[in-house]
Each structure stands twice: as structure tokens, then as C-alpha cells.
């Protein structure tokens, strides 16, 4: 618990630094491209078009109705996937910088996540406009969207504390995370619909994945379906319990090993 409070205090005290470093991270990642940060929108749009064609007209044969459903869910993945993979290597790839600067190492996963958050917000704005053109004009339900964005950031940071620490100590962990994310994409309801009435056991197992909660929450917000976090309040409690456990474990690991991170250079 002391480790968790220490890490939380460091995030609050260094929030301005996190904002500055995340803005620099976002600009530097696209500095060599002529279109710059627009690629953060172009690439997801290309992937959405491919998935729509393959799954909407091919495998699932759902046509036009599949596109809004796909966009509302996959927009989360374009945030979560790079955030998790890059956060896992965020500390050990910056050990040279850390040895020359004076700031808590716990802010490194934070600013990497925030850099991806800025890109996510831009893509989210484009998705909202596209959904309006497909008939899903924003409704009152969209006011719950900031809650799910905060929930996503909280999950990413808690999980990132664990992976960034373990990847620094054992470099193979990062490769494991990359492989795991490829599997997780198909274990999250982004491209498929699971009928809980026909497959209740499988549905219950799938819901152990915290991203299931986030994706369904985004869909409920963007497609104007329901107050998901209220209607599924038991699932909401489960999600935040998982985030809390990850945060406690991640904080403990981070505080325990961070004084020795430089030794793993």
C-alpha cells in the first residue's frame, strides 16, 4: 500500500512533466513523416476498411450494419495495443535518459500512455463524425464516454507498471507481451459478437478480460445503446477491482526494483 501511495503521489506531483514529455513523445514519433501525426488517423482508417471488407462482407456477412459496430469498438484497440506494447519497453529503452535526468521513473509509463491518449482523442473525434454519417448521431449516452477513457488510462497505467518493470528486469517479457497482444485482439469483442444466451459459460470466461468491459462501454456510449457501467454494475466493480490489484502489484514491483534499473542496462 505504501508503494501504491508513493507512485500515486509521484504522478500528481509530476503531472505537468508528464504532459510536456507526452507532447514531445507524440511530435518526435511523427517528425520524419511528411503527413506527420495524420498517419495516426490514416493507418487506423485503412485497417478499419480492411476488417470491414473481410468480416463485414466475407466471414460474418453483415454488410453495412457491421461498420458502425466495428468502428465503435476497434477505436479502443488502436489506443490500447500501442500503449501496452510501448509501455512495456518504456523504462529499459530510456535508461540512458533516466541516468541523466532527475525525475521519478514511474512517470515514464505515464507519459508514454498520455502520448497515445492524444492520438486516441483525435481518432475518436474522427470516428464520432463518421458514425454520425452512418446514422449514429451522438446521443445523451455519449456523456459517459469520458468515464471509459479514464477507465482505459487507469487500466493501462496499472498494467504498464507491471510490464515495464518486468521487461526491464527480463527483456523476454516484452516479446511475450507483443505475442500476447496478437492473441488478445481476438479474445476481445472487436470483430465478433458472442450471444450470452447461447454460450453463457464462454461469455462469462470472455468477460474476465478487462478490455471486454471497456470495448462494450465505448460501444454503449458511441452507438447510444445504454448506461453500460450502471446496467452492468457488477462488471463495473469487477473491472475496478482488477485495476486496483494491478496497480498494487505494479507499484510494489516498480518501487522494489527501480533503484536497480540502471544495473540492467
Short description:
This protein is an all-alpha fold and 265 residues long. 72% of the residues lie in helices and 0% in strands. The chain has helices spanning 2-13, 15-29, 39-59, 66-88, 95-98, 107-133, 145-169, 172-187, 200-206, 210-222, 228-231, 233-257.
Please characterize this protein's 3D structure:
The protein has 265 residues and is mostly helical. Helices cover 72% and strands 0% of the residues. It has twelve helices and no strands. The radius of gyration is 19 Å and the shape is globular. The two termini are 29 Å apart.
Q: Describe the biggest sheet?
A: none
**C-alpha Rg (nearest Å):** 19 Å
User: What portion of the residues fall into strands of 2 or more residues?
Assistant: under 5%
Report the structural category. Answer: mainly alpha
Assembly level: single chain
Number of strands: 0
The span between the termini is 29 Å
- Give the proportion of residues in helices: over 70%
Q: What's the pLDDT, averaged over the residues? A: 85
Task: Spell out the key features of this protein.
mainly alpha, 265 residues
Describe the SSE topology.
Blueprint lengths: L1 H12 L1 H15 L9 H21 L6 H23 L6 H4 L8 H27 L11 H25 L2 H16 L12 H7 L3 H13 L5 H4 L1 H25 L8
Amino acid at each position: 500500500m505504501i508503494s501504491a501511495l508513493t507512485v500515486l503521489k509521484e504522478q500528481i506531483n509530476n503531472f505537468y512533466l508528464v504532459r510536456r514529455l507526452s507532447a514531445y513523445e507524440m511530435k518526435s514519433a511523427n517528425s520524419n513523416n511528411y503527413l506527420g501525426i495524420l498517419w495516426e488517423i490514416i493507418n487506423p482508417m485503412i485497417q478499419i476498411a480492411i476488417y470491414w471488407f473481410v468480416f463485414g462482407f466475407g466471414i460474418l456477412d453483415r454488410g453495412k450494419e457491421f461498420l458502425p459496430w466495428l468502428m465503435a469498438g476497434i477505436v479502443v484497440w488502436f489506443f490500447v495495443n500501442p500503449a501496452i506494447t510501448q509501455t512495456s519497453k518504456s523504462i529499459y529503452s530510456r535508461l540512458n535518459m533516466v541516468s541523466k535526468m532527475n525525475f521519478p521513473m514511474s512517470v515514464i509509463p505515464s507519459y508514454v500512455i498520455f502520448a497515445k491518449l492524444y492520438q486516441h482523442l483525435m481518432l475518436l473525434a474522427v470516428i464520432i463524425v463518421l458514425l454520425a454519417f452512418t446514422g449514429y448521431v451522438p446521443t445523451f449516452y455519449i456523456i459517459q464516454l469520458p468515464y471509459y477513457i479514464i477507465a482505459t488510462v487507469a487500466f493501462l497505467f496499472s498494467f504498464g507498471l507491471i510490464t515495464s518493470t518486468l521487461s526491464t528486469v527480463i527483456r523476454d517479457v516484452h516479446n511475450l507481451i507483443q505475442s500476447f497482444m496478437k492473441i488478445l485482439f481476438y479474445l476481445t469483442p472487436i470483430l465478433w459478437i458472442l450471444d450470452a444466451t447461447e454460450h453463457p459459460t464462454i461469455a462469462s470466461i470472455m468477460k474476465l478480460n478487462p478490455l471486454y468491459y471497456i470495448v462494450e462501454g465505448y460501444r454503449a456510449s458511441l452507438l447510444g445503446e445504454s448506461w453500460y457501467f450502471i446496467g452492468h454494475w457488477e462488471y463495473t466493480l469487477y473491472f475496478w477491482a482488477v485495476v486496483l490489484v494491478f496497480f498494487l502489484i505494479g507499484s510494489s514491483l516498480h518501487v522494489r526494483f527501480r533503484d536497480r534499473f540502471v544495473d540492467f542496462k
